[in-house]
Structure formats: structure tokens, C-alpha cells
Design a protein that fits this description.
eight-stranded antiparallel beta barrel; 3 domains
């Protein structure tokens, strides 16, 4: 491995190590989360932050051997799309270059950047004589956390248009963002292999106490009285849950304000106001609203700071709106309002803080383009925090779960009746 370069974060003063010195461009401080430029001898601050990124399963600096090459973890990204979230680890070897290790759920994939690009269209591509078929529609992938060093400039909130093509268990990933298209080949790697390589603890699923298969309807058909009792129990439980939710919601307290979100950087620590939670536990909602934005999104990080303890409860929100024209005519998507629900907030007095950053799609506007006749340099977002909310999403989820078993039993009963 290459010699490690020791540096000091100019934002928080924390000691850091550049493990791929001479190759890395960006580094996200593991102590405060600030983005640093490490491409030159003097370390430069790109973007200041006060909170470090969340923890990842693979720690920076951990080494492991995969495919007969020793790799070192130098960077980590948390990413998500409309349906899933996953972690990506950047591996480095001075002789083999960079690779990716992707963790989605409990499944690992090993990624190699592709230099010889596939040929084809949006439905099928051919690479090295083999045909790959697109898996699903193209979607937007967003980076939600950054830790460690990278060979390109990356930051939280980056977005790319992503599409997958597969052939058997091999996947080709295409990402298009900022005028650059990158292809990566992904192959599956067993969890046991990764655990052994990097010294991770194996998370084994809990075993069933009995070897008998789970067959809730295999013994006897449910009599009508049992079905009635099951439905009555489900209904009664829902009513009790609603009463409990109404009790927990308690008195209402509000705080409102606004924050001006700048393009390309984050405005941190804007205090919206103070709210009081008067029950032992209450739900708190934070609502965000903006107006007249187009092809823009605003990332909002919330913090409820307990005045008594100084502890913070963090949450995330986003307002966004996109529009354009295609072969089908005008289209638009997104919402100018957003609601974030904080569950089980303890009794106390909380100061509400907001961090905000505005981004343009497909890229942030340059400073030269932000003139009097173009987009504003800041997006104003109105914020309102309120105690006493009812988590209706949880209530409907409970209704679905409570009635699922009696409905399945009823379906099974009618299915087994002689015709």
C-alpha cells in the first residue's frame, strides 16, 4: 500500500489520514463531515460542516483480500433512490487501482469501473460480446452521506440518473450526471467471503425453534365464530390504538420561521424557534414549503435540540420540483411542500434548527449565471414545527397488519368449501 499522508482538518482540527495520497481529490472529514481538497500540498476547505456522517459497517482503513488482491477501504457513500437505500465502499490498491464494494440489505457486490464501454440503446447493450437487458426504468440516485477520500469531487446531495442492465447475476450500472457517463460492472460476492476478508462479524438469521413448516391454515378450517372474533379483535385493537395516539398527541405547540437555502453549499444552524413537548412522549411534525422553483431541490436537515440535555434528534426533509418538455409534451413532478414526522419525542423544551442547501438539476447554476434576470441565489423555505401530530401512516399500517390474518383465514375458508 502507499504511504499514508497525515493532515489536520482546517474546520475542526481533527487528525486525518489520506490513504491514497497522490490519487485522492476529495476527503470528507470523519470527525465533522467537512469536505476538504487534498489534491494539493496545502489542504483547502471546500464545504464546512458541524456533524460527521453516519457510521458505516466497513471502517475506513480496514483491509481485506478479494480476488487475490489486498484492498483498503478509503471512502464510503450512502445512496438511495425512490425505493431502496444502500452503501458503497471505495476500495484502493496502488497497483490495481480502485474498485467498489456495494452493500444492499445483506447482499454484497464487487464493482469494477469499465474502460471499454458497452454499445446499444436504452433497452439493451452489448459488452464484450454478451448482451445485457435493462432491469427496470431509469431512476434518480442521490448521495445522502459521504465519508473518507475519493478520486473525484463528491458531496452529500449529489444526484445522477442511473440505469441497470443485467445478464444472469452480472449487472452493468450506468450513471449519468454532470455531463459525464460512468459504467460499472457488478458481480455478486458472498457475505461469508466479505466477512472473512475484512474480519466482519457474521450476522446469522435467527433459527426457528421447530423444524415444522409455518402453515397457519393447514390444520383445520376456522369456524365462523373464530373468524368473527378475529375481526372483532382487529377492530377493537384499531380503536384502542387510535385512542392511544390521540392521548399521546397531547397539547399543540408551534414554532415557525424560514431559511434561505444557498445554491451549491449548506446554510447551517438556523434556529426556527422553540417548542415544548408536554406529554411523556409526543409526535412532532416539521413542515416545509416553498414556491416558484423549477428544476431545483432543497435538502433540509432538521435538529430538535433538548435544552436540558443538549441532545439532538435529527431528521431529513426535501422540497423539489422539476419540469420540461419531451415527445409527449409538457411534464412536471415533485412537490413544493414536505412533512417530516419525529416519533416518540420525550417531554422537554426543544430548539428547532434547520440546515438547508439548494441544488439545480441537472447541475448547480454557476455563480456567473445567478444574475438579476435569472434564478435567485437563495431559495426561501418556510418551516413550521408542531407538536401533537397523529401518525396516520402508522395507523393505516397497523390496520393492514391486524386485518391481514383474519382476511387470509376468511379467504382460505371459502376456498376450501365444496362448490
Amino acid at each position: 500500500m502507499t504511504a499514508v499522508r497525515a493532515i489536520i482538518c482546517p474546520q475542526c482540527g481533527g487528525a486525518l489520514e489520506v490513504r491514497a495520497a497522490g490519487y485522492s481529490v476529495n476527503l470528507a472529514c470523519q470527525h465533522c463531515g467537512s469536505l476538504l481538497d487534498v489534491s494539493r500540498p496545502e489542504v483547502a476547505l471546500i464545504e464546512a460542516h458541524k456533524r460527521a456522517a453516519r457510521q458505516f459497517r466497513l471502517k475506513l482503513g480496514r483491509r481485506g483480500t478479494l480476488f487475490e488482491v489486498e484492498w483498503e477501504v478509503v471512502g464510503a457513500l450512502a445512496r438511495k433512490d425512490e425505493a431502496y437505500a444502500w452503501d458503497e465502499y471505495l476500495l484502493f490498491n496502488p497497483y490495481a487501482g480502485y474498485r467498489w464494494l456495494v452493500l444492499s440489505g445483506a447482499e454484497w457486490q464487487f464493482g469494477t469501473m469499465m474502460l471499454d464501454l458497452p454499445e446499444g440503446d436504452d433497452d439493451t447493450v452489448t459488452w464484450r460480446g454478451e448482451r445485457y437487458i435493462r432491469d427496470g426504468a431509469e431512476g434518480t440516485t442521490r448521495t445522502t452521506a459521504v465519508l473518507g477520500e475519493f478520486y473525484w469531487r463528491v458531496r452529500k446531495g449529489d444526484r445522477v440518473a442511473a440505469c441497470l442492465f443485467e445478464r444472469g447475476k452480472v449487472i452493468l450500472s450506468r450513471e449519468d450526471g454532470g455531463g459525464e457517463v460512468n459504467w460499472t460492472q457488478l458481480i455478486p460476492v458472498g457475505a461469508a467471503t466479505v466477512n472473512a476478508a475484512f474480519g466482519l462479524r457474521d450476522h446469522k438469521p435467527r433459527r426457528r425453534a421447530s423444524a415444522q413448516p409455518f402453515a397457519p391454515f393447514a390444520v383445520t378450517a376456522r369456524p365462523t365464530s373464530d373468524l368473527s372474533a378475529m375481526f372483532a379483535f382487529a377492530l377493537g385493537a384499531l380503536v384502542l390504538l387510535l385512542l392511544a395516539m390521540a392521548f399521546i398527541s397531547g397539547p399543540v405547540d408551534r414554532a415557525s420561521g424560514s431559511i434561505d437555502a444557498p445554491y451549491g453549499k449548506t446554510r447551517e444552524g438556523v434556529k426556527i424557534g422553540t417548542i415544548s413537548v408536554q406529554r411523556p412522549y409526543q409526535f412532532v411534525t416539521v413542515k416545509a414549503q416553498t414556491a416558484n422553483i423549477s428544476n431545483t431541490w432543497v435538502d433540509l436537515d432538521y435538529a430538535l435540540v433538548d435544552r436540558a440535555t443538549g441532545q439532538s434528534i435529527d431528521g431529513y426533509g426535501m422540497v423539489e420540483h422539476y419540469s420540461g418538455h419531451d415527445s409527449d409534451g409538457y411534464w412536471s413532478e415533485g412537490t413544493l411542500t414536505d412533512t417530516t414526522l419525529f416519533g416518540q419525542v420525550r417531554r422537554g423544551t426543544y430548539d428547532v434548527y434547520v440546515d438547508a442547501a439548494a441544488h439545480g438539476w441537472p447541475s448547480d447554476p454557476s455563480p456567473a449565471s445567478l444574475g438579476w434576470s435569472s434564478s435567485p441565489q437563495e431559495i426561501t423555505v418556510s418551516i413550521q414545527a408542531e407538536t401533537g401530530a397523529l401518525p396516520w401512516g402508522n395507523w393505516w399500517t397497523a390496520a393492514l397488519l391486524l386485518f391481514a390474518f383474519p382476511c387470509l383465514a376468511l379467504w382460505h375458508r371459502f376456498r376450501e368449501e365444496p362448490r
